[in-house]
């Protein structure tokens, strides 16, 4: 492969380049079927792009973005429904 093509694929330091911010630093992900210079992206850059553009699919390869599962913030968790009978049983067991 020609050096100029290789540099455009990997960046000047031989590392992947984020297709949004063009940075070579940080951990990159490949959230869709794109390849080459369009494959790598920071997860934060992708999340920001998706929230701004409201795009659910890649505009290049048309594949849905694969995003990592995340835990919801604790204030969004559902609290367990505890009946009086369950709480009475629980407190009796602690004695």
Automatic annotation (TrEMBL):
Ranges for the RING-CH-type domain?
A: 10-68
Q: Which GO terms describe its molecular function?
A: ubiquitin-protein transferase activity; zinc ion binding
Q: Which is a Pfam family this sequence falls into?
A: RINGv
Does the record's keyword annotation contain Aminoacyl-tRNA synthetase? Answer: no
- Membrane topology, as annotated: Multi-pass membrane protein
| SMART domains (UniProt xref) | RINGv (SM00744)
Instruction: Identify the GO cellular component terms for this protein.
Output: membrane
Broad class of where this protein is predominantly found: membrane
> InterPro entries per the record?
Znf_RING-CH, Znf_RING/FYVE/PHD
Biological processes, Gene Ontology terms: protein ubiquitination
Keyword terms: Membrane, Metal-binding, Transferase, Transmembrane, Transmembrane helix, Ubl conjugation pathway, Zinc, Zinc-finger
State its location(s).
Membrane
Q: Name the domain of life.
A: Eukaryota
Report whether Signal shows up as a keyword of the record: no
UniProt-recorded name of the protein = RING-CH-type domain-containing protein
> What is the species of this protein?
Panagrolaimus davidi
